[in-house]
Uridylate kinase (Candidatus Phycosocius spiralis), 245 residues
Amino acid sequence: MDDLIKPFGPKPRRILLKISGEALMGDGQFGIDQETCLGFARDVKAARDSGIELCLVIGGGNIFRGISGAAKGMERATADYMGMLATIMNALALQGALESIGVHTRVQSAIPMQTVCEPYIRRRAMRHMEKGRIVIFAAGVGSPFFTTDSGAALRAAEMGCDALLKGTGVDGVYTADPKCYPKATRYDRLTYTEVLAKDLKVMDASAVSMMRDSAIPIIVFNIRQPGRLAEVLAGTGVCTVITDF
């Protein structure tokens, strides 16, 4: 799998890691599991210590998902804003876990909330990463009707990242949901166009299109496996690579 690391370019590399909010639940059904947070923090620290500049985006589905709220009759814009607030809570939780193991971290929110975190400022975020700090982007793009996948794609493009790594609960992109269809098979490599044409749902269409337009590879892997992030960055981990070739 050595060819899988080629999209990252020469060191030092800069990547954006997108973690689903559900991953923070651990074995629970809701909320934030501190031990799970700490495990993710260790993996992120190991990646940072290898010389990679890192920024993160975390979903909010473990606390509140805007689309689900809208489906139950809530106004979509209000539901989405509530979901954005959930991502800020998750970002602060992961920041606490990272700083407990000695990693300097900054949370930047697309919704101004200066009492608890910095407002999103692109050049400041880039400077933080150049100094070795981890930057966690919260509140998506700051507007309703956009998912955190779109927020991750936007920030990856703005930060000039070499790749967007999406950490999920499965080890890549499958022909169908492997939890529901055990015979589903995993793709090693896909193009952006194939993801959109097959409606594979790995990320929303706007996020995939943005990564295609920005020529930023998407790497999908299982964040729940300790050490898998380091393996993927080394080109040896099980994952699916989405590029234009």
Remarks:
- DSSP finds eight helices and eleven strands in the chain.
- The longest helix spans residues 76-100.
